[in-house]
Amino acid sequence: MSRRLNYILLLLIGFLLFGIVPKSRIIDKDCKIKIQWIANLKGDFNFRTKWSYPEGVFRNEFGQLSCDGFCPEGTESMKDSVGKIYADSLTRFYQLVDTTHQYHSISCDAWCYEWAGTDFITAKQTNKNHLTCSTHKNVGTHCSLIIEIINGTCIPRIELISISSPGLKTYFCKNGFLKIDKNLLLKGIIKAEFNFDFINSDEPNRNIFWKGKIYATIEKQ
C-alpha cells in the first residue's frame, strides 16, 4: 500500500516540477486569442452583396433553375430524359426545391486538408457571453473553421470530417488575430477580420492557416 502511495506522490511531484499538464489544458492556453475591439472596422466587405443558389441548384440549358445531386425526393420524375422540367411540373418543382438567393457572409482564404473554399458562416449566440461562428462545409470542403467567443476571448479551431478517414479531426490555433466591430456587434451583426495559424499534428512542417473577413447576422438561441 505504501509503495503505491509513494508512486502517486512521485507522479504529482513530476507534474509540479516539469510542468506536465493534461493535453486539453495546453490546448486551451495555446489557442486563446485576445480580441481587438474596433469602433468602426474598415476594409472591403462588399462580398456580403454577392449571393449564390443553394448547393446543387443551377440554371440548366433550358433556362430553368434545376438541381443535381441534392434534389428532394420526387423531383427527378418531373424532368424529361434530357433534364428539362415539364411545364406542368414547374410550380410543384419549385415548392420542393429551394432556389432562394443566399447572400455570402464570409470571404476567406485558407490551407487545410480537404478545403476548396466556402462563402458562408453561421453565427449563433447561446447567451450574452458565448458566441459561436462556424463556416459551412460543402461538396468540396470537408473542414470547418469554428470561432468560439467566450467572455470576450476568442478560441479558434478547425474541425475536419474527412472523406478518406473516419472520425473527427481537430486542429487547434497557435497564433493570430481577430478584429471585431464593436458597434455592429451591439446591433446583432458580427463584422470581423481574422487571420489564424493552426497546429498541424499530421505534418508539422506544413502550415495550416485560415484568414478572411466576416459579415453575418447573429442568430439567437
**DSSP helix count?**
4
The total of beta strands comes to 13
Catalogue the unreliable spans: 4-29
User: How far is the first residue's CA from the last residue's CA?
Assistant: 52 Å
Major sheet characteristics:
9 strands, mixed
> What is the N-to-C succession of helices and strands?
HHEEEEHEEEEEEEHEE
- Overall 3D shape: globular
Radius of gyration: 23 Å
Q: State the secondary-structure class.
A: alpha+beta
Helix content, binned percent: 10-25%
Portion in beta strands: 35-45%
What does this structure look like?
The chain has four helices and 13 strands. It has 221 residues and is an alpha+beta fold. Strands 1, 6, 7, 8, 9, 10, 11, 12 and 13 form a nine-stranded mixed sheet that branches. It has a two-stranded antiparallel sheet with strand order 2-5. The chain has a two-stranded antiparallel sheet with strand order 3-4. Strand 9 and strand 10 form a beta hairpin. The longest helix is centred in the first third of the chain and has 17 residues, at 2-18. The model is unreliable at 4-29 (pLDDT under 50).
